[in-house]
Prior knowledge:
Elements: H1 23-34, E1 39-43, E2 52-58, E3 61-67, E4 73-77, E5 92-94, E6 98-100, E7 107-109, E8 114-116, E9 137-141, E10 144-148, H2 157-160, H3 165-169, E11 176-178, E12 183-187, H4 191-198, H5 204-207, H6 209-215, E13 219-221, E14 228-234, H7 243-251, E15 265-271, E16 275-279, E17 283-293, E18 296-306, H8 311-341, H9 357-369, H10 384-395
Antiparallel strand pairs: 1-10, 2-3, 2-5, 3-4, 6-7, 7-8, 9-10, 11-18, 12-18, 13-14, 14-15, 15-16, 16-17, 17-18
Helix pairs in contact: 4-8, 6-7, 7-8
Amino acid sequence: MRDIQIPNDWDRRGLPGWSYHSPQLLELEKEEIFKNHWQIACHVSDVPESGDFQTFDVCGERAIILRDTAGELRAFQNICRHRGSRLVAEDSGNCPSAMICPFHGWVYNLDGTLRGAARPDTFPPLDKHEFALRTLEMEIWNGFVFIRFKPGPQPSVAELMQPFEEEAAGYRMADHVPVGDMWTEESPVNWKSVRDVDNEGYHVTMAHPALQDLYGAAYLDEPYVDGISRTEGCFTPSKGRRWAVRNYKKYSKPQSFLPEDLHRKWLYYGIFPNVVIATTPETVLFYQEFPISTDRTLLRSGVYKHENEDRQQRLARYLASRIDRETVDEDIQLTIWSNEAMTSEFFEGFYLSDLEYGLRTHHDHLRARLPIYSVEEAPQEDEVRLLNAKMAAEVG
């Protein structure tokens, strides 16, 4: 872990309630927080063969991750250059030799270049590069495929995650393969309420009996520093009171290559603004959330196993997934209760525990991107963008 000291006099307030239900602020968040920060689109094993693809939508933007005929991964805007149609409509699949637009039949090679338009005689000559699909910035880190739609403030993923590189390498994440399809679910809350719950472990003792049984007080949060955070839960020595936890502890069997200090530990690597990569002795996974509206959020996750797991490891992975799903359901309810308060005239704001410093530092990162979060009283909706721009200019 990084050596991080928590100050004694830190501000225990969170974001103001109005910021969870402002449509104009949400539009700023889409532009300045989601579209220009790194997002996980998939894992390399989701697109193993030539022509395999995975689509990925973020805040009105559309991407396609594709393996070309040379075996290289590419990231494109999922937008036909003719009329802007969604070029690939399915979530995942295979384009054997080309991508064909379902609107008018324009055809693109797997390297993104234009192969040809339908009825070419009705167009001037079309250059295959000029009318190629627009590429997206992409980087692969430990098997996870990151993209961003616009240039942003973060460095490369490798530079961003360098403090965790040595530890993460022990999991050989790139060698894992998918456990089923991507999981998605809509939740009736603002996206920040999801982050607020996930970024602190103060609630584990009360709200997550399975996690408490699994690692109890041995749950260590690290705040967000330079855009990343780390949390770990070490298994308690007890056998476990709950059926799933008791049997998971009994059957958990780490991969032979995993360093011994990671044999009985769950880790969570947070990446600002909304990505978490989590590891267990049996699996690696990611999860993230995206705003649909001020009060609707899309939850998204992918889980990956080691290709050569044995029966005991498969059983342990199943039991871990039961614990994790129970935790997700509990967290969804917590986010709903927390989010409800944001519209109440009687909500007076957060007062955070030292154990919620991860939440506070995530809020600090948000304020650094959009200084209007520091305004305590709700501004007029039509003033949000201008006020934020004025405050940003004053900051420098």
